[in-house]
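REVIEWER CHECKLIST
Item 1: Sequence provided? yes
Item 2: Single chain? yes
Item 3: Sequence as submitted:
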Amino acid sequence: MNTEQMSQAGTLYIVATPIGNLEDITLRAIRILKDVGLIAAEDTRHTRQLLNAYEILTPLISLHEHNEEKRSQSLILKMMEGLSIAHVSDAGTPGLSDPGFRLIRAAIAHDIPVVPIPGVSAAITALSASGLPMNRFLFQGFLSGKAARRRQQLTELAGEKGTLVLYESPNRLLSALRDVYDLMGNRDVVICRELTKVYESFIRGPVQAVIRTLEGQRIKGEVTLVISGCPQAKPECSDAELLQRFNELQQHHLLSHRDCADRIAAETGVPRSRIYKLTVTG
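Item 4: Structure as written out by the authors:
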């Protein structure tokens, strides 16, 4: 794109919107949503409620996971012709487990200015009230809906020293927590539900205790799951201690050989290869 074209190009604004409480929007976000020529929304019906609350009359167009690739092409052409566009998701900051990545990448590739309008994020909101360390954290997004893949994801995350922040469906939450217990041990977790909404709630504690609290309950609403990071390795962990823990897990939790090794590695910080070799030959 030459200099003249760049001067005529519009701007792509990435606008964070409330995750529940409509008051959680910035003055700048309201101004941008009023000033742009078009708003690309994940769900136009959902976004219309926000626009109506602040008397924003800007036209809407849909941009969701099923049409993002094709729709992004037409939006890029509009911005190259000088139209400024705001992109919003249903809630929070676009691109975080929401559509927007392809559009942002395409805008950058065409030298179209991309301007973030910061605001709410469910991940950061949950982390801020979790009581778990915030100096280092890893955001994973949604865990897989398939049990085998979810367990694989958790196994890959087990050695992460920072706090983990994940999204989960309320229908799968208990299954996910049981997998956390099996593969990561009895770590501290925080269940953040319906953040900023009327029924906002936090359940904190070791994962085994949280599982007992939730069993028999009907879990509703959007859930953000925060998990404490991998503990530091013990100063000394003998082969005998490792073998004893391995036998306990196999006898009482009926885990596979690999799952037992994964969990011990997560609990102790001992390399899984050492545990696996020890338990195979021991």
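Item 5: Key structural point noted by reviewer: The beta strands are 12-15, 38-41, 60-62, 85-88, 114-117, 137-142, 163-168, 188-193, 201-206, 223-227.
Item 6: Recommendation: ____
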